[in-house]
Amino acid sequence: MTMNKSAIDFPCEPFRIEEVPEGTHRPLWSVMIPAYNCAKYLRQTLASVLAQDPGPEQMQIEVVDDCSTKDDPEAVAREMAGGRVAFYRRPQNGGVTANFNTCLQRSRGHLVHILHGDDYVLPGFYAKLADMAQNHPSVSSFFVRCQFVEEDGTLDCISPPNRHLFQPSRSPGNLLYNNDLQTPGVVVRRSFYETRGGFLPCLVHVADWEMWVRAISQEGGLFLNELLAAYRFFPTNESGRLARTGENLRAYLRLADIFESHFADFNTARFRALVAQRALQQEKCFADIGDKDAASANHKLWRELTPWTLRWEPALRGLLSSLKRGLFNH
After folding, report:
1. How high is the mean pLDDT in each 10-residue block of the chain (330 residues)?
2. Do the Cβ atoms of 213 and 196 come closer than 8 Å?
3. Which residue in 163, 190, 159, 185 sits closest to 174, CA to CA?
């Protein structure tokens, strides 16, 4: 997989995922749980998996810790499941994408589910996804809807359905412009990762987005229109932290370079306009809660992405409206 080197000046090849060694027991499932300073939520994560556990012959369950500094996920895993849940601590902190790739490399199952240590699954997840995989052997990636959960456990919204994937398809469709697939609601065959590679190390916030588009376009995807997983979002996690600086949206722009090099009909201008709109939305959200630095960072990005003519348009409309009101009032 080659990249646009003019836009990305550091190595950006998929992480190599080795095949499972011969003679190794291969369960159907590998539930790989990347963790970093999220032990307070890990109990719910593990409980949701263990409630659907078909046993070690059919399911590998492993917590992969990225050198947590504020809590002890290993103690939580032992407390919850004794030796049923394996635990691995990376030799050094490498960030989200590196931990995802470690999860893939350590997986042994035919179906790999990456479940963040602060997310969880709903009843029926593993049984229904296993049926999908069995009934569609030529498809490599499977998706379900997720509910968004706030830090305190309050349920927020539900991710929309991806209707173009209700039947097996190799078309990413609108996923080239908007990622509404959440990692806890995604299952991919390990064979795909072995032949097509793992997550791109050069991407941080959007490595999952690139991966799902790659999986669908290269070996097909299928969407089950059922709510079967939960994704937790709060300002102090990685997604919230990157949004404060606008770095999440700058990562989008790096992803646009990759999409442009792989999809002939990809509309870069449309993508950049959507990113600019998202920057305005993030600016407003941070302004509403009084976070001036975060609002300013997102406004700066909006200005970078928006031609000056469009930047002045709202102000000009307001000025013209004021002049008209003044004329009619005399």
Report:
1. 39 87 96 95 97 97 96 94 95 95 98 97 98 98 95 86 97 94 97 97 91 98 98 68 78 91 92 88 88 87 74 53 52
2. no
3. 163
Supply the DSSP string of 90-143, one letter for each residue.
-SS---HHHHHHHHHHH--SSEEEE--TT-EE-TTHHHHHHHHHHH-TT--EEE
Q: Can you give 15-48 as a three-state secondary structure string? A: CCCCCCCCCCCCCCEEEEEEECCCHHHHHHHHHH
Helix (H, G, I), strand (E, B) or coil at 189: strand
CA 40 vs. chain centroid, Å, equals 21
CA dist 213 and 163 (Å) reads 15
With tokens 């046993």, the residue in question is 55
Q: Which residue has the tokens 């000046």?
A: 9
The conformation of residue 280, written as its DSSP 8-state character, comes to: H
Tokens 């003044």 belong to residue? 326
Q: What whole-number distance in Å separates Cα of residue 301 and Cα of residue 214?
A: 27
Tokens of 100: 């995802």
Output b/e per residue, 79-90; b: 16+ Cβ within 10 A: ebbeeebbbeee
Q: Residue 46 contacts by C-beta under 8 Å, 6 or more apart in sequence?
A: 33, 61, 63, 76, 77, 80, 81, 85
Amino acid, res. 230? A
Q: How many CB atoms lie within 10 A of CB 184?
A: 25
Can you tell me the distance from the alpha carbon of 186 to that of 171, in angstroms, rounded to the nearest whole number? Answer: 17
As beta bridge partners, residue 130 has none
Cβ partners under 8 Å of residue 6, min gap 6: none
* CA pair distance 230, 100, nearest whole angstrom: 18
Token pair belonging to 125: 């997840």
